[in-house]
Amino acid sequence: MPEPNVPVPGPAPAQPELPPCGPDEVALLIDGHPVVAKKGTTVLQAAETIGVVVPHYCYHPGLSVAGNCRMCLVEIEKMPKLQIGCATQVAQGMSVKTTTNRVKDTREGIMEFLLINHPLDCPICDQAGECRLQQYSATYGKGESRFVEEKIHHDKRVPIGERVTFDGERCIKCTRCVRFCDEVSGTRELTLVERGGHAIIDTFPGMALNNAYSGNTVDICPVGALTWKPFRFAARVWFLKNVPSICSACARGCSVDLATYQNRVHRITARHNPDVNGYWMCDFGRQTYAPAQDLPRLTRPIVRPAPGGPGGTEGGGAAPSMGEAVDQAAASLRAAAGRHGAGALAALVSARLTLEEIHLAKKTLAAAGIARIVVPPHEEGQDDELLIRRDRTPNGRGAALLGLGAPDAAAAAALAADVAAGKVRGLVVLGEDPVGDGLIRAEALRGLEALVVVDWWTSATVQAAHVALPSCGYGESEGVYVNCTGRAQRTRAAVRPGDLAEPVWAIMREIGRRFGLAGAYASAPAIFAEIAATVPAFAGMTYRALGETGAQIEGA
Ligand code: SF4
Ligand code: SF4
Ligand code: FES
């Protein structure tokens, strides 16, 4: 019989029913919510599927589990001690709690411990704004420290690699960077030396963090211990706008974020795409935006006198408008064809252009009677086992699928020979620099009666052109590329082009109209819709369907 005034315990609160699950799955409760997860899934991953955040530093989905930061501790029914969610696998009937007072106290303790030797130089740290120490301090921290002793000091601004700077005081020894070099790049430059509070990341003797993928260590460092040299002090991250796009520096086409501020790309980081690049990208690709800022831009059209043609306007007279320059381009091609026949005209079309640009180039060149179209290759180095492709064109597969043919060195050499021999009298060059690339000698171009060049910078070929038309550079226009495995992906406009520059498709549309090309072709999506309707490989595709990670082309 119960004692008076002692409350009789009521029935235990009803536990939610565990949902049914398949043979490879388990059902469990996380903070009282029923979850079904695949066997082998960790508690942290299962929690993520229902939007429950388990804070973590050392865990990264692309790396092995280290279990060293202890930030992910959770309470699991029937287990006396807290367990790390990143390494504990789910089990049938498990009940996990992530918000109990015990868990909260532990997180506060971990945060206080991690900050004991941290320099707190957030005001001058590039990671400020996207630092997990900052974020977790606000959400899970104690708000104060009891540590009044002198902090342990380490070297700061260490040039640990050609492109990466290391700050030993900011490091929390999560070993993500070490595991990346061991498991992903396979280059094994980094290790953890010393013990306890004196432990520090270092390179092995005689080595530097110079592998082709070193920038990924910066991406995954949860604090500001590793920073990317070209981005150091360039912009505060809260001003940056990340635009999802893809890298165009090789045929892999890694998914990336273009970080922009004040109409300028300041940084490129890898964007997760399990079908293309996982979580990673190479260092070369991170600098894809640099030429658009470093090379002299072509921002206004140039018209120069062609043999037998009307006078030019460069260096004297009024600068031509785009319309006048397009008129001149069409007139010079028409005149050359009139004198020598359409067979004396040819075009070099870059596989760096988007599908939309190549599609309209093809139509315009056909309208102008130009049948000889060559796509030059660009190759450098070797394929590696991770991402990098020897083929440096981002859309060689796309050019082939659109019927232009794959990049062809022999065809390019034959065209160059015919230009030098005077057999080609009119040449259209789209997004290529055959003079700068050593394909055609500048003197050989002097025999041309019409040289029309469309490019975003003042290349050696632009300097020889009779008509040069300014186009958008990397990150300035949208479109679709097809990568080396046949995946169609979108690239987006992240910044506005300068002055009179336009997308190549818009320039080709205008030239095409001078030759009777019909059709509005008002935007890149509209052109892609025509591609999807007319080219079987792209049947049914839309920009929306391509989404953030693209779509695989069947049979490609
Ligand atoms: S440098 Fe960064 S990624 Fe490497 S152990 Fe330190 S905190 Fe972790
Ligand atoms: S592997 Fe190729 S596509 Fe990927 S980041 Fe490097 S250069 Fe760009
Ligand atoms: S994330 Fe689990 S121990 Fe670090």
Largest sheet: 6 strands, mixed
Distance between the termini: 79 Å
Q: Mean of the pLDDT scores?
A: 95
Number of helices: 15
Listed once per kind, the bound small molecules are: iron/sulfur cluster, FE2/S2 (inorganic) cluster
What best-fitting shape do the alpha-carbon axes yield? elongated
Kindly state the number of beta strands.
21
Fraction of residues in H or I helices: 10-25%
User: Which oligomeric form is depicted?
Assistant: single chain
Helix-strand makeup class: alpha/beta
Q: Strand share of the residues?
A: 15-25%
Rg computed from alpha carbons, rounded to a whole number of angstroms:
30 Å
Provide the spatial order of strands within the biggest beta sheet: 13-18-17-16-14-15
Flag low-confidence runs: none
What brief labels describe this structure?
556 residues, alpha/beta, six-stranded mixed β-sheet, five-stranded mixed β-sheet, elongated, binds iron/sulfur cluster, binds FE2/S2 (inorganic) cluster
Describe what you observe in this structure.
- The protein is α/β, with parallel strands linked by helices.
- The protein is built from 15 helices and 21 strands.
- A 6-stranded mixed beta sheet has the order 13-18-17-16-14-15, sandwiched between helices.
- The chain is elongated.
- Bound molecules: iron/sulfur cluster (2 copies) and FE2/S2 (inorganic) cluster.
- The site of FE2/S2 (inorganic) cluster (FES) has 12 residues, from loops.
